[in-house]
Amino acid sequence: MGRKKEHPKKHIVSCRINTEEMEILREISEDSGMSITMLLRKSLDALTNNNPLSA
User: Fold this and answer.
1) Which domain holds residue 26?
2) Over the stretch 5-21, which tens digit does the pLDDT of each residue have?
3) If you placed Cys at 21, which of 1, 2, 13, 17 could pair as Cys (CB 3.0 to 4.6 Å)?
4) Are 21 and 28 a contacting pair, CB within 8 Å?
């Protein structure tokens, strides 16, 4: 059995996006060198720390 993680990730979030939105996510992901998952986590973090993203 592996080590227990400090903050295990047990939840899965799913949503439908259109082709244009997916292309934008992929482009930002590639440009930043982050996975789409990490990009979304960092976006959530920015929103919760009162650093709103442009709409």
Assistant:
1) 19-44
2) 888 889 999 999 999 99
3) 17
4) no
